[in-house]
Design goal:
Structural class: mainly alpha
Order of helices and strands: HHHHHHHHHHH
Number of helices: 11
Strand content: under 5%
Length: 213
Amino acid sequence: MAEGLRERKKRQTKQRISDIATGLFLEHGFVTVTVADVAEAADVSVNTVYNYFPAKEDLFLDRGEAIVDRLSGYVRGRRAGESAAAAVLRELRSDVEGVSPHVGLFTGWADFMRVITDAHALRSRLWEIQQEALDRLAKTLADETKAADGDPMPGLIAGQLSWVHSTLMAWIGDEMTKCRNPAEVSRDALVLLDEMEDLLGEKVLNYAVREAE
């Protein structure tokens, strides 16, 4: 019970620091705001900030690990008879249909992306996160299919599924920067997903089908 309470308080503190930092970055820009500024606003020490966030970039991109594991999680959770691609497409459609902030469908997305665009360090960290996600997906596909060492297919399939995800996110981001209604963008994004699925080959669509138990 005590350990659970401590962990909950740690999560709450981490989230509070991140929320305060995000607000400062949105208002003043990532480069202008220092870690000391965040610590002062959150009423904690600089060391406390670094205990929760190893780098300043992590204060803004605080959900990096969730992003890294997102597509891999979809693959691991695929249903019986469902391929890796089908699982990813199903989950992405669910997020788009639900107008989920996970895919950038919220009114503040344009401001969020502006902060990233204006800061080279954030752009670099986002690229690293995307590469980590691609590498993890390739490993997950290799594990799920028990692929032999040196088999190029897990990496090739991971590249195709990563392309679907990154293209969707980029398109939604561009549309949301035009101050469009998220529900309208959602409807158009579903059409885009259908078009991307049509471009995927049979090998991709039928790779890593989970056998029925």
